[in-house]
Amino acid sequence: MTKVPQGFDFSFLNDEEARKILQVLERNEELQRAEKDRISKLQKTKRDIRWLQGVTGEWFEEIQRKKFCNETDVSQMLKQPLTYRLKKGMAENDPMDLQTSRSKNIPNQRNPTPVPSRLSFRSFSSLFSFKKSRKEPLKLQSLGQKGCDGHAGLPVSVTGNTLQAKLYNSHLENQPVDSAFVPKPAGMREGSGVPPWDASLLENEFFRDHTLFKVVIKSLSPKEVVRIHISKPLDRNDGTFLMRYRMYETVTEGLKIDVLYGDEHVAQSPYILKGPVYHEYCECPEENPQTWQKTLSCPTKEPQIAKDFASFPSINLQQMLNEVPKRFGDERGAIVHYTILNNHIYRRSLGKYTDFKMFSDEILLSLARKVLLPDLEFYINLGDWPLEHRKVNETPGPLPIISWCGSLDSQDIILPTYDITHSTLEAMRGVTNDLLSIQGNTGPSWINKTEKAFFRGRDSREERLQLVQLSKENPQLLDAGITGYFFFQEKEQELGKAKLIGFFDFFKYKYQVNVDGTVAAYRYPYLMLGDSLVLKQDSPYYEHFYMALKPWKHYVPIKRNLGDLLEKVKWAKENDEEAKWIAKEGQLTARDLLQPHRLYCYYYKVLQKYAERQSSKPEIREGMELVPQPDDNTSICQCHRKRLSREEL
Q: Biased-composition ranges for Polar residues (predicted)?
């Protein structure tokens, strides 16, 4: 039997019981020594106070104390004789600090650790955000939350952006609250007996099934009762939380948004949105487009839009009418001819494969409910491939076809894909995987992800088959599989068919391989919003936001033929910190580029630029039909702009 420490009486235990207890005690002592040494070394570096507070884990201890303050002491779950004798031995000799209660790990803190946060609210969408400030000095603002020991709870530093007072009609009264309340600890406090795990792992362990704060949204007027669906917070695993809500009725006076920790307000809560505030299907367009764009904080410049329209200083509608049906409107065509006139949308289909007009319809209708659109007449390509390959110096010149995907050898004008616009419109309703839900389902923290490159997808490009072959030959570096065969059915027996895996589970792997499908892979924006490193295949195809992403800053490039893929995976494994940094930079940039309001801004800017270049007035052509606004009888819409217009008449 292992030697019993002085002051402990294990005589009432059998050898096996005593051995197990001693192993725990010895391990606890080792961890305490190691953690004490680690903290001592780190503190000698004399960094700033906020960093040192992270090192000692004061933030985490405070949260832990509050979370478990009402729970039964762990010691009460031990046999009474054992508890009594161990405590008695410790009192007499105190050879080591045997901590039998989780709560005893946490000292009373007279000066709780400040928790920096910054509020960023975009009035366009029903989205608001709390996040820690990276640059600003530490400030204290106590929440007033009482802990178990009677001291004030977590303080918050608030350096928020000014709230936009008026919420203009948004497609998403369901947009997220990009919210972070607590930063992650850098390590554990001295003497805690817990190894210095990754911060997000600690956060996940203790907060996985608990909401740190709650959101309550009500009308400012007690006379107005509004139906609002508030989704559960999405933990983005970086100290920020994403919150979303969807309205089903108009609010005249406005909304009050309470963000609470316990019964106390967080940061600048409560937030006031002065009314009226409209739900998604309320048709009440802002008549001044500049006001609408200013409210949304739309970018003044979009490089991709400028590049696309450089080939079209003027747009000849008559030439379009003569050429587009002949060139692209045959039986195999997928073209829809649109006219927007007086903010109403009309269309006719050219070709057999135009069912996807439902997606172009829904985003145009949604825009028309929010802002007065310019009068214009244009053609949208619903197919995968861009269509116009004429060069600018050719005669006749290229036609301004609008598509969802561009290429280096085409002249199409690019809009955000139907996939990301649809997932944005149907967030919290018709879809599960959207640009917001992805951000709250990014899998394990970086340190706990599997160190392999990962791919699942159908056989829409030959390089994907090569990827599977590489995986078979190098399973230690790559896990790739084809989930469905259509183009290369003869390869299924040789390469095998992989089981479908939920997209959220992709992020269990550190490295994501993005290989083109028929054109640019529509998964790319979703991969960028995760926290894995994206290995992107060189490609002639692009979407509307690609121009803002740079290789080796936001992603790691790989050759078109995948010849350097394994080399890049090895590089990432050998340069873990740099790989992690690139992954984070890509994620943060994608979050900014793919916010719902940015998609609306982009759509409007394309329509505006197109309308400015038309050489003649658009018309409702023969064969066109009105695309009606959806009739949502379950939602109440009261448009103050329409009411004022009738009174003036």
A: 98-112
